[in-house]
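Aim 2, interim progress. The first record below pairs a target sequence with its structure tokens.
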Amino acid sequence: MRNLQARYTRDRLILIVVIAGTILAALPLTLVLGYALVNGFSSLNWDFFTKGPKPPGELGGGMAPAIVGTLVITGVGLLMATPFGIGAGILLAEYPDNKLNPTLRLLSDTLNGMPAILKGLLAYVLVVKAQGSFSGFSGSLAMAFIMIPIIAKTTESVLKLVPWNIREAGLALGLPRWRVILSLVLPAARGGVVTGLLLATARAAGEAAPLIFTAFGNSLLTFDLSQPMDALPLRLYAYAISPYEDWHRQAWAAAVVLLGLIVLTSLLARWVTRGR
């Protein structure tokens, strides 16, 4: 009986330590989010979403070019990253004995651990130096470098969770291996694959460092990927280090909008995977 009581006591102590650790880990995040929301909501208005930035020292203006640029750059980056990320995940999960896998895994792990600013520098060397100018396309390429390892890792993980009897059933019907993967395995894992795409999008959308070398920023609204393009992280960084109080307020508002986009993407990922 005494031994049982001691086990209950240890269990409660461990539970208290785990709860305290969770609170301590969540506290800084809660404070940052709360401070951003308190300071940012007061600067959100119609002009913020519909107008471009004002010249330095002039009050008012908005971040319409930055909001549109973020959606365009991130969306094009996702389009570029999706086939490579999913393809790499399929190769790693479905063809474990392929000779390319060790090299592919090394590249994926290296790219995943590489700082985002280095991925921006890589896009700068590949596109900006070749074109001779900054562009939205180079920003999208930098975003794709961020997304590819995340998508590949997620795809590999969820494909490994699909029961092997699904593959065996397809092969027993005489289907080739590629058809089994496309028609049976991928549909069975689509919730996890889509979640990986959304999480990769949320991860890339908040990065500012790679865009400094690539998209560079633009105060005018543009959809031309061959020209410099604005983005919320870029505008937030520029406004945050400026000496103007009005720009500081708009930087907080940009943080709230960026946070909203990321939270919305995460909620969408949870909705896609609900009940699976």
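The second target in this work package is listed in the same format:
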Amino acid sequence: MTRTELAPTAAAQAAPVPRAGRAPRLAPWLLLATGLLIVSGLVALTIGPAGITPAEVLGSARHHLLTWLAEHGLGFLDPGTNPLSRIRDAIVWQGRAPRLFTAAAVGAGLALSGAVMQAITRNPLADPYLLGVSSGAALGAVAVLLLGFAVALPLAAFVGALLALGATLALAGIGGRLTPSRTILAGIAVAQGASALVSFAIVASAQGDSYREIINWLMGSVAGATWSSVAIAVGALVVIGTVLLARARTLDAFTFGDTAAASLGVHVSGTRWLLLTLTALLVGAMVAVSGSIGFIGLVVPHVVRLLLGARHSRLLPVAAVVGAVFLLWADTGARSFFAPSEVPVGILTAAIGAPVFAWLLMRNRNRS
């Protein structure tokens, strides 16, 4: 039995399932995680050399909201004076806020994608990058950077992710039925091929400062986030995430294997194609605005399973919020730990995710 052909209950074995009658309730955990996300966002907006307080951020947010309502004929309260000066206001709402919202949306999207992939591949070590989507997006982004069309980077990354998914599914479907193990192996092959092309393109073509720009993007960063980035990430998360959340019971059926899922009325092949495509689209959108940020899709779902069990109606929403909190703080650390310099956030997520990944490997080995 290969690693990708785990027993049907392998994903559930990755974390203990609470005993009947003692399953944690979703609402308290979701409220707790959401409250943590809101507080984290407010605190993160104040961290930096400008010395801005939470009260000033809230006051400025109230001023902008009431001003916007007044401009659209809906104002019933006096907006008052903005407690932030023009420069400090720009620091918060044009610099830190787009970055914060982008990081939160990307973290949520990657964690949600990881939880879905681990269910449909029945592999507890799966994450969104296993299908070669990240490498495909990186290849598309590097291509436009080297050609000097950086403005088209999000679109190129998105197209690269879709092409990589298509190549993975086509390769997995050659000469046989699309199975989890064939899909993962095909994804690994596509990822390695795309990575090789990225390395060759950099070595053969990059000149001057383009090296630095490409390397930073490949390591993952939301330093260049704008409100357009927020629109892309949040839009993809809301639209695709809603569909994935609605498939929670189907993912429960996949956890116990194709035969069990079919016996429960699930069209196994078609549903797997649909979920894989949606997951790749979501990951492609996130990679397009943040570069390659690894380990969130692997680590966060397992942490949440340890707390809530393997039922996806609880796992998916809480994992999404925890992923948002995780990347929000990772990005805050990336811009703060070595200030005034900054490190790509992918380095921090890898530093945290690598030991957790090793722990999961040892844990699965002990179970087997």
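The chain has a mean pLDDT of 80. This observation will shape the mutagenesis plan for the next reporting period.
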